[in-house]
């Protein structure tokens, strides 16, 4: 599955990989970057869930208009585990949070995971202007990095300040 996004519709497009349930860490970093949910877009390149303490909250990002994601291997593992009923592989790779969650939370997570079935495997960002990608910024204490894609009519780009 494939999705094309018009990059000209957004002020900034941020790319993120391997969030792995670290929702609070992401929200803190987006505040530091002055992320504007009305003008900016965040694209996850997979693995929203597992390992961190807030996987359900990370799945909740799928409801946000400013968020897009491709299906990562952890989302795929979850879908396969729920379909087959064999949770062992998923649990060995961080899926314990689902099994330990209460029934109400699981019902909401099940709806969000069903949405993961429709996530694209490829997202293409089309832009009219030239584009450059800033170096990834690693968040302290986690394997989470964000990179910014910016555009300029002159073909040059000033990297965002690192604040």
UniProtKB/TrEMBL annotation:
GO BP annotation list: RNA decapping
Keyword annotations from UniProtKB, A to Z: Hydrolase
Region (Disordered): 144-163
GO terms under cellular component: cytoplasm
Entry-linked InterPro entries: Ap4A_hydrolase, Calcineurin-like_PHP, Metallo-depent_PP-like, Ser/Thr-sp_prot-phosphatase
Keyword Hydrolase part of the UniProt annotation: yes
GO molecular function: bis(5'-nucleosyl)-tetraphosphatase (symmetrical) activity; protein serine/threonine phosphatase activity
Cross-referenced Pfam families: Metallophos (PF00149)
Its EC number(s): 3.1.3.16
Domain of life of the organism encoding this protein: Bacteria
Domain (Serine/threonine specific protein phosphatases): residue spans on this chain: 70-75
Low complexity bias spans: 144-153
SUPFAM superfamilies in alphabetical order: Metallo-dependent phosphatases
Protein name: Serine/threonine protein phosphatase 1
PANTHER family, per database record: METALLOPHOSPHOESTERASE (PTHR42850), SERINE_THREONINE-PROTEIN PHOSPHATASE 1 (PTHR42850:SF10)
């Amino acid at each position: 599955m494939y999705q094309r996004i018009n990059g000209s519709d957004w002020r900034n497009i941020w790319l993120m990989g391997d969030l792995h349930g670290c929702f609070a860490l992401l929200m803190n970093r987006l505040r530091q970057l002055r992320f504007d949910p009305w003008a900016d877009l965040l694209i996850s390149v997979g693995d929203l869930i597992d390992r961190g303490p807030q996987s359900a909250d990370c799945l909740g990002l799928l409801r946000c208009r400013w968020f897009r994601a491709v299906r990562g291997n952890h989302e795929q593992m979850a879908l396969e585990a729920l379909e087959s009923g064999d949770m062992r592989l998923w649990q060995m790779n961080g899926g314990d949070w689902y099994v330990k969650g209460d029934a109400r939370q699981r019902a909401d997570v099940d709806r969000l995971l069903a949405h993961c079935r429709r996530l694209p495997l490829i997202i293409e960002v089309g832009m009219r202007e030239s584009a450059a990608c800033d170096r990834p910024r690693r968040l302290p204490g986690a394997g989470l990095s964000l990179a910014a894609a910016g555009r300029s009519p002159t073909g040059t780009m000033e990297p965002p300040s690192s604040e």
